[in-house]
Amino acid sequence: MDATATSETPSKPLGGLRILIPPSRLERNPLVPMFVRMGAEVVTFPRLREAPVNPAPLDDAAQRLGEFDWIVIAGGGSADHLFARLALRGLDPKALRAKVGAIGFSALKALRSHGVEADYRPREHFATAVVQGMEPVQGLRVLLIRAQGATDALPAHLVRQGARVEALTGHAVAAETNAADLSQTFGRRLDLAAFANPATVRLLQDAFAQVGAPAEHCLAGVPLFAIGPTTAGAMVAAGLPPDYVAGGRLKPLLDEVVALAGGPVSPR
Predict the structure, then answer these.
(1) Among 164, 173, 192, 268, whose Cα sits 20 to 30 Å from the Cα of 243?
(2) Mind spelling out the 3-state secondary structure of the chain?
(3) What is the pLDDT of residues 66-86, one digit of tens each?
(4) What pLDDT is recorded for position 254?
(5) What's the CATH code, domain 56-171?
């Protein structure tokens, strides 16, 4: 079944709106409580499950952590997987000599749970913004640990800036759904859909493929929001061009949704 969070209060800015937020990780998307506090009914689709990850590349890198100037971790699952592999080898995560970057609050939280404080947490998660906070990176070795299926925008931009990058999979999730989930989510009116990152687009496509439902049909007439240009690019490639593109932060997206809600929510 789809997961629904609601705080329907007509006097709130988003009261009465039903908003789809596709997930990209097992942890709750930070967009969900933001929209709920504003009065929206939030629907998350599809359901996700953990998927297996080949540990060999990360095991190899764990033996060579001293070679890296930066270890950049995207997502709490990636952090937990890294520390699990370190623990198997009796390696102390607190002994990391490289600078540590945390992309996303879940990565920051996971690092802290293992006694590691990040040196850097970018406020915006698209590639140019992440790299700006690390510069200068020319000549530096960067270990990037992220979700399976992540775009190459960040490692490519690091390479263009002169860094030597090793990008590894730290965690993976897979979509799973059925006809009942699909009906419960799309059988009622959706006022808009908000995509937080490219993985949300890929996983939603995977879910639609499982039940043979075309994405453009299910989302026909629904205003589509994207956070950041990379997410917008993934949506265009999937045949779901966004109507609105917010910057790399969550608040501009919320502001645009509230502005739209100030008038009638109209289809594209």
Answers:
(1) 173
(2) CCEEEECCCCCCCCCCCEEECCCCCCCCCCHHHHHHHCCCEEEECCEEEECCCCCHHHHHHHCCHHHCCEEEEECHHHHHHHHHHHHHCCCCHHHCCCEEEEECHHHHHHHHHCCCCCCECCCCCCHHHHHHCCCCCCCCEEEEEEECCCCCHHHHHHHHCCCEEEEEEEECEEEECCHHHHHHHHCCCCCEEEECCHHHHHHHHHHHHHHCCCHHHHCCCCCEEEEHHHHHHHHHHCCCCCCEEECCCHHHHHHHHHHHHCCCCCCC
(3) 899 999 999 889 999 999 999
(4) 78
(5) 3.40.50.10090
